[in-house]
Amino acid sequence: MAKPVIITCAVTGAIHTPTMSPYLPVTPSEIAASAVGAAEAGASILHLHARDPDNGRPDGRPESFMSFLPRVKQGCDAVVNITTGGGLGMTREQRLRAASAASPEMASLNMGSINFGLFPLLDKFDEWKFDWEPGYLDNTRDFIFRNTYADIEYILKALGQEHGTRFEYECYDLGHLYNLAWAVDQGWAEPPFFIQLIFGVFGGAGAELDHLLHFHRTAERLFGDSFEWSVLAAGRHQMRFATQAAMMGGNLRVGLEDSLYIGPGAKAKSNAEQVAKIRTIVESLGLTVATPEEARNRLRLKGADRVAF
Ligand code: KMH
Ligand code: ZN
Fold it and tell me: What would you report as the CA-atom Rg of the chain, rounded to the nearest whole angstrom?
């Protein structure tokens, strides 16, 4: 029997800006409602970022996360996964503040430094809802998404060892799998490793099926059977790569963080719409969708009763 597919939904992120879609959740109420809607549609993990409710700018303050986390917890049983990716110019301590305060079951951990080019999105818009948006995107011409060995060690210890939080290991390139193998060798990461293979971010591996096959084979070589894997692809590649992951026996991630679309030229009206679409595809392949409890058991999470929100 094929394993049920764990659907992660990344609800708002730090890539898209409010001008790009009226459906991007920004306020605490919007983020909470969108997250709960995604869980009701079949997501068993919710990957969450916060935004400034006044202007939609990505926001790392713990109090911003705390303004929606209790509502998400009361509204659904899904696993809460908090970003440690942060935003432009944040120190690693700042990037960790929200997750340290919330002590979640899961957090993201980016497995290497890369360029993270959002500036091509500038060409698509002439007018902006908020002044900060064009500068935010333009800054990525000269921005390194910093995830050094010291950063990785710090987060694994400060969050993993201190809080019992487990990780979504975000791998944008082949070397990031080897970085994870290094952290495992140091004794800082415990199996099963939940590896998120990422395609189509400008600065990381492109959205090519060859890359997915090769990354997956490499993960098998490095981690044997002690890992679970999932795939996310940015923008128009999202549904195709999610489907491919399900067909190969893996898990998948959708959500407005990574793509604002539901089909060619059509904006998704909610996170739930994307989750419902991929769920229909998964089930029509003869597969099933994992419940939050199944995800907790497979990923050996500490449980929703041991978080701090
Ligand atoms: N949007 C993903 C490609 C994080 O939150 O740590 C990157 C991401 C990073 O999810
Ligand atoms: Zn994220």
Answer: 18
Low pLDDT (below 50) residues in the chain: none
**Rounded to whole angstroms, how far apart are CA atoms 156 and 148?**
12
Tell me, using a 6 A CB cutoff, whether residue 228 lines ligand 1.
no
Instruction: Break the chain down into helix, strand, coil percent, rounded to 5.
Output: 45, 20, 35
Taking the centre of ligand 2 as the mean of its atom positions, its distance from the CA of residue 123, in whole angstroms, is 23
Taking only the tens place, the pLDDT of each residue in 177-235 is: 999 999 999 999 999 999 999 999 999 999 999 999 999 999 999 999 999 999 999 99
- The residue with tokens 């692809």 is 233
Q: How far is CA 156 from CA 149, 182, 223, 299, 306, in A?
A: 11, 12, 18, 16, 18
What pLDDT is recorded for position 44?
Answer: 98
The structure tokens 């940015």 sit at 234
| Bridge partner list, 167 | 107
Q: Is the dihedral of CA 256, 251, 35, 170 positive or negative?
A: negative
Which position has the token pair 């050094």? 148
- SS3 label, residue 168: strand
The secondary structure of 281-297 as a DSSP string is: HHHHTT--BPPHHHHHH
Q: Which one, of 44, 52, 61, lies nearest residue 24 by Cα?
A: 52
**Measured in angstroms, how far is the CA atom of residue 177 from the centroid of ligand 1?**
16
Nearest atom, ligand 1, residue 110 CA: 6
Instruction: Give the angle subtended at the CA of 225 by the CAs of 167 and 164, to the nearest 5°.
Output: 25
Q: Is 258 touching ligand 1 by the criterion CB < 6 Å? A: yes
Structure tokens at 125: 């818009």
3-class SS string, 36-64:
HHHHHHCCCEEEECEECCCCCCEECCHHH
**Mutation test of ligand 1: which of 110, 116, 155, 168 has the most ligand atoms closer than 8 Å to its C-beta?**
110
Q: How far is the CA of 258 from the centre of ligand 1 (A)?
A: 8
